[in-house]
């Protein structure tokens, strides 16, 4: 009996000993976002921390909801240590949602150097999303003030979730960035954003870059499109539509249904809004022969659900109109995908679809695969055939549109 009691006491002491290094919540400053900009000194960077500090009592915010502080240092961890000399609470990176990098730094070729610290810091999660901003990251953090969100950390979390419903921004976590960059074969797409409005804008909403979406209101921050990275360096930007196509063609991006709009085939002034439902994975087939270009055949199966037909043209009961609609949708996606693929072959020399995964089975060793050189030899010279295959079309709750002749008799 005495031995049992003694064992219980010893085990209790071991369990309690696990709390020796605990830090109370009120002693910590939780960082929501980290921003990185170039500094004037070589090897130095401006590291910005956006810290949540407001408390909620009775549903009301007390004090400022967030505070920004910028430190010059050679990496994020060094900046965190320096910032702790200015802030009484211990800076905590466990809850960081996004890593914001200025476009200037992303294009400079120095991004890999400064991001290495995130792979070694245990507190920095690999699921942190990478956002590239047109302006400096510190400026973006200062100007980003969402009027409808009480909890600052929720703002970034909810914005990132929109990628699964719209497809206009990619899933771009740090883990994926290093995975693709170190693979040295495919392109990485980072989220593109800005808190500055641009004057020029295209006619179609899906072709917007961040800053071109027409709006009225206090909030200027926009997340749309993507930043293209090759070998860890930003080389270009993609529009919202190009980003969405990239996600559809990439089986590693988990996307099931996205909202789209396209020209009404029977009306020159109207566009149709619909939901593209991708229930099955994209079928990717790569065939290789010696001394011949690779043949890549891609089939994208999808369903279409009509949400709005402003022209009120009857597609649900008129078979001729329905077939015309099906052909128009498939042709539109085939043409847009063809343009994006040609751009990736001629301009980038690589692709953002992670198709290199499907060619590796042709090589026995990693050395053979690397010598074949997917992004400089195989892909740029490949013959690529992409086909969007509409398996079914749905009409929502109503098959027939309102008969305007009965309304205006």
Automatic annotation (TrEMBL):
> In which compartments does the protein localize?
Membrane
Q: Which GO terms describe its biological process?
A: spore germination
Primary residence: membrane
The organism that produces this protein has a lineage beginning with: Bacteria, Bacillati, Bacillota, Bacilli, Bacillales
Q: Membrane topology for this entry?
A: Lipid-anchor
Matching Pfam families, A to Z? Spore_GerAC (PF05504), Spore_GerAC_N (PF25198)
- Species of origin: Alkalihalophilus pseudofirmus (strain ATCC BAA-2126 / JCM 17055 / OF4)
Entry's NCBIfam families? Answer: spore_ger_x_C
Protein name per Swiss-Prot or TrEMBL: GerKC2
UniProt domain Spore germination protein N-terminal: residue ranges: 21-190
Highest taxon, organism lineage: Bacteria
